[in-house]
Write a structure and sequence with these properties.
- α3 (about 60-70) packs antiparallel against α4, α3 (about 60-70) crosses α12 (about 270-290) and α10 (about 215-250) runs antiparallel to α18.
- By secondary structure, the protein is mainly α.
- The protein contains 21 helices and no strands.
- The protein has helices spanning about 1-35, 35-55, 60-70, 80-100, 105-110, 115-120, 125-145, 150-170, 175-200, 215-250, 255-265, 270-290, 295-320, 320-330, 330-335, 340-365, 370-395, 395-420, 430-445, 455-475, 480-494.
Length: about 500
């Protein structure tokens, strides 16, 4: 677990820097300079591109983690592994981009009153699909090589700095809407090229390959796994994008923009999970390759608890300051309509980051076929819940629908992990941390409120933060977290 902690800490530092840049960008640049309907437009384009990029990858990103240990041999260029991870998405582009073009009319019609605006930029989604697909593949390949810091820097910092430049150019009328959309897409292309350059420095990127290395049995296993994971990934991608799609369709791009800003705020909760899961996944894959299910389950407990602690603290700090945050951001009275979206999405992210490593274990085990069943069942429930709740509760209904689908998804997933893999993520520390989070919410209501918003945020966060860290340390919730706390305070003492 040592390498997991070290790499995840480094990755989390980058994530938090990115989160800070993202917070400033989203809260003080986007909300001031970009109209809600334009926020909705580019995010709908991004969501459509993400959906098709999941298809274009044809399960490649998931296959990288599972099969890289079989190919790994740096002296032999990893036996042509890079060729395969580039070739499969290329084939996916040849299949699914024409499908996107064929489906132009129903895709455009789906967005109803906003169809004319989306039509104007329909073709810009195509390069965005390619950029997102290969960016994901290159990032996963870097993770498989136990290098997560630079990929995190590209995803969390560089892309945000590129986009804030685009937002400012648009806000100060240096470019029109056409320029805004085109530069938004190009920024993602630059991020993809950065990742390609980086992996060329840390791993072989030769397109040479030896067909004889991939024996018939391995080829059959890879093909089956890739097909299953492509379908499973598509289902989970649909689930993650449902809110934006249906809010755009039912309420328009303006409310989609408000919803997107709220979702970005709620997503801050899962920042630590991005690093821990990225560095833990290759270790889990190696454990399953060796048949060591017990080691994988031990890893699950540690990852789950540490992610609950980190994500839970962020969720508490975000929610206790939510009203103050909306008071200080530009046009906060407009975007505050998404307050409860922040709560339900944040809670959904907290549940997800606590339990999502179970999905990693299932993908790497012989039970990976179950992913198709539960992702599509949950996606169906999610679609139904969105169409049922959005007319009644607006954008808050979309967030409730997401939380409902997430709870159902992870309940079923945990049943598989418990029943088939004889594992579970729960420890005494899990219960202790849940109780601490509930107590922190209660303490917040006892604290005085200051008229000065900034003073209120600092005071409230400091008191709750000190109590939280003390409770985690003296309550011995997690030995790994205690090591981190001792290390931090040890530096101050020295």
């Amino acid at each position: 677990m040592g390498i997991v902690i070290r790499q995840s800490i480094r990755g989390s530092i980058v994530n938090y820097i990115g989160a800070f840049v993202g917070f400033l960008t989203t809260m003080f640049v986007v909300t001031r300079f970009v109209a809600p309907e334009d926020i909705g437009l580019v995010n709908v384009m991004l969501s459509v591109a993400m959906l098709f990029s999941a298809l274009v990858q044809m399960g490649t990103s998931s296959s990288i983690m599972r099969f890289f240990p079989y190919f790994k041999n740096k002296e032999k260029n990893h036996n042509g592994f890079f060729f395969y991870i580039v070739a499969l998405p290329f084939v996916g582009c040849l299949i699914f981009i024409p499908l996107y073009l064929l489906l132009k009319e129903p895709i455009v019609a789906f967005f109803g009153k906003e169809s004319e605006l989306f039509t104007a930029y329909f073709y810009w989604v195509i390069p965005l699909i390619v950029f997102l697909a290969y960016w994901s593949v290159f990032e996963t390949y870097s993770n498989a090589n136990m290098r997560i810091v630079i990929p995190k820097t590209a995803r969390e910092v560089i892309i945000r700095l590129l986009l804030v430049t685009v937002y400012l150019l648009y806000g100060y009328h240096a470019i029109n809407r056409d320029g805004f959309v085109s530069l938004f897409v190009i920024a993602h292309g630059i991020a993809m090229l950065i990742m390609l350059f980086y992996i060329s420095r840390i791993a072989p990127v030769s397109l040479r390959h030896d067909n004889s290395f991939v024996k018939k049995s391995l080829r059959k296993e890879i093909s089956s796994y890739t097909l299953i994971l492509m379908l499973g990934t598509m289902g989970s991608t649909i689930l993650s994008l449902l809110g934006v799609f249906i809010v755009s369709s039912e309420l328009g791009f303006k409310f989609a923009g408000i919803y997107v800003i709220a979702v970005h705020m709620g997503t801050i909760v899962e920042i630590p999970a991005r690093s821990i899961t990225a560095i833990s996944s290759p270790i889990a894959a190696a454990a399953f390759q060796k048949g060591d299910v017990n080691e994988a389950n031990r890893l699950y407990k540690k990852v789950s608890l540490n992610q609950l602690i980190a994500g839970g603290l962020i969720f508490v700090l975000l929610w206790i300051n939510i009203d103050s945050i909306f008071k200080i951001i530009p046009n906060g009275d407009v975007f505050s309509q998404g307050k409860w979206v922040v709560f339900f999405i944040g809670l959904a992210r907290l549940v997800g980051m606590t339990l999502n490593f179970g999905e990693v274990l299932i993908r790497f085990s012989k039970y990976y076929r179950w992913t198709i069943f539960f992702t599509f069942v949950v996606a169906t429930v999610g679609i139904g819940a969105n169409y049922l709740l959005i007319p009644e509760f607006g954008i808050k209904g979309a967030a409730i629908a997401t939380l409902t689908a997430v709870l159902l998804s992870y309940a079923f997933q945990q049943w598989i992990v418990f029943k088939k893999l004889k594992g579970n993520p729960y420890t005494k520390g899990t219960l202790k941390m849940i109780l601490i989070l509930l107590v922190l919410f209660g303490i917040n209501y006892l604290l005085p409120t200051f008229n000065n918003v900034l003073i209120d945020i600092v005071f409230r966060s400091a008191i709750v933060g000190i109590i939280a860290v003390s409770a985690i340390y003296f309550g011995k919730v997690s030995e790994h977290m205690n090591e981190i706390i001792r290390g931090v305070f040890g530096k101050f003492k020295s």
